Automatic annotation (TrEMBL):
Protein name from the UniProt record: Cytochrome c, class I
Signal peptide: none
Membrane-topology annotation of the record: Single-pass membrane protein
SUPFAM superfamilies per UniProt: Cytochrome c
Phylogenetic lineage: Bacteria, Pseudomonadati, Pseudomonadota, Alphaproteobacteria, Rhodobacterales
This protein's record includes keyword DNA-binding: no
């Protein structure tokens, strides 16, 4: 009833299942991490799901110095951040769901011809300075209540500074 052929089939089945499990893990690592497998470099998550922590401790958030972030901003890293913006904005002078972002740094708020703004932005600021963009990109609804931009914002201050540097380099 239990001969060597049955035992071989059982062991082969377990080895095959383990191989599928290992290959699935390797594929998941490749898909969900930027850069794949690298030695000596820290992995950066491709998709981040932000979750608010409950009650933790009485830790205060450290204030972010925009001037320091702006000095160290990397336009190349900002290009990667801009990939999330591409769904609604373009850099070629054409409007999409949102207005084009050519020359947005230093441009008057609500100044793109042919785009129907909600009006909330012009009440929040006059010109898109790097500081105004930094605050707006953190929480668009909080910065300009009533804006039609439905994006929830970029919580990482370095990513916001890098994105602004990228937008300024494409002016």
């Amino acid at each position: 009833m239990f001969d060597t052929m049955t035992f071989t089939k059982v062991v082969g089945g377990f080895c095959g299942a383990f191989l599928v499990f290992l290959l699935g893990g390797w594929v998941a690592e490749t898909v969900y991490h930027v850069g794949g497998e690298s030695h000596g470099e820290e992995h950066q998550a491709a998709w981040v799901i932000e979750v608010e922590e409950e009650g933790g401790g009485a830790e205060e958030e450290e204030t972010v110095d925009f001037a320091t972030l702006w000095e160290n901003a990397d336009a190349g890293a900002g290009e990667r951040v801009f990939n999330a913006c591409r769904a609604c904005h373009q850099l070629n002078g054409n409007n999409a769901v949102g207005p084009h972002l050519d020359g947005v740094v230093g441009r008057d708020v609500g100044a793109v011809d042919g785009f129907n703004y909600s009006g909330a932005l012009s009440q929040a600021a006059d010109v898109w300075t790097p500081e105004n963009l930094f605050a707006f990109l953190e929480n668009p609804q909080g910065y300009a209540s009533g804006t039609s931009m439905s994006y929830s914002g970029i919580s990482n201050p370095e990513d916001r500074a890098n994105l602004i540097a990228y937008l300024e380099s494409n002016s």
